[in-house]
Amino acid sequence: MDNNEKKLYPIKFLEDGSKVPWGSVNYQIADLGFVDSMVAEGWFGGNALSELMGTYLERVVGDDSFEYYGLQFPIMVKVINTSGWQPLQVNVPDDVAEERYDSLGKTSLWYIQEASEEARMYLGLRRDIDAGDFYRRCQEGLLRDILNEISPKTGDMIPIRPGTLFAAGPGLKIVEIGESSELTLSVHNWGVELPDGEDLLLEEAFDLIDFRKYCPAAPSSDDGFRVTRMELKNPLHIFSEQPGDFAVYYCVSGEAAIQPGPGADGFSPVGIKAGHSVMIPSEVNDFLLLPTSEGTVLLEAVPIKKSDPDPYIGSSPEQDAPDPHIRNWN
Question: What is the 3-state secondary structure (H, E, C) of 33-47?
Fold first, then answer.
């Protein structure tokens, strides 16, 4: 990739799927090193996402995301299908990830695309528990009665934050949108084989686990991204005065087309079908989302600016003027 003057356009990637002992995982957009999504078509077809980032920098993700994340694309999208129970896992927070692993931490959101009537998952603990009691239960296989069991339904949006224990059971199709990291530690596997190269890391994860009763948390800028479910019944015009942040769309159902907005520089319309994703670079700051079938539903993921708090006032500085990078809808 040697021509950084080419105009960016909505980009689709080749999917990278694999079987695991409890089902399958299909990476749709990922810049993880061991998974590096390949552009599917257009000028950049055959190039990896990391190559796109290395050449086009903030033109792909926007100034704020590039300042914070550098050359790593900030958001990952993958689809999980469960035929058995996942290992019980915990995500690693950013500060520990940087200190111990020289990596990004992981916060994610699960969108339940499909759920059988019998589907279950664990999310946190039913009650406060002593750390020693938890360890004993792990060793003796007695965890289930102290885990918070829920019955996920189609359309549920479930945040998975660092410190919260979680595991999905059989009968689920989950769209995971999260930070560009797979820093998740498995603490118990129900006696089932783990994927190749993975180990149980209970001792390593022990100081990261939240041993308090599970309590849902409100969305936060610390998550690094925001996900919105959009029922696309009419054309939607998305624009900003200047290039701002990128966006990722996952099509839950139906079908949509993405085409240049009125007066915008041209690019060939891009279609997105149910079960697939597309990334809109920061440089594409004026475009239309058009439903091309009934019942079209999209998930939109956009970054939330992460910044260090002001040491004198304890919060991020406020902007006095409207930001021309902020996207508008009509």
Answer: CCCECEECCCCCCCC
* CB proximity list for 289: less than 8 A, separation 6 or greater: 230, 232, 235, 236, 238, 249, 256, 257, 258, 298
Domains of the chain, CATH where assigned: 75-221 (2.60.120.10), 225-329 (2.60.120.10)
Tokens of 241: 């005065």
Q: Name the band, by pLDDT with cuts 50, 70 and 90, for residue 316.
A: very low
The token duo for 173 is 């199709």
- pLDDT for residue 262 is more than 70: yes
d(CA 151, CA 6): 48
Residues β-bridged to residue 167? 122
DSSP 246-261: -EEEEEEESEEEEEEP
Give the C-alpha distances (Å, rounded to integers) separating 227 from 95, 102, 246: 23, 27, 13
Which DSSP string do the residues of 25-87 spell out, in sequence order? EEEEE-B-SSSBPBB-SSTTTT-BHHHHHHHHTHHHH-HHHHHHHTTS-SEEEEEEEESSPPP
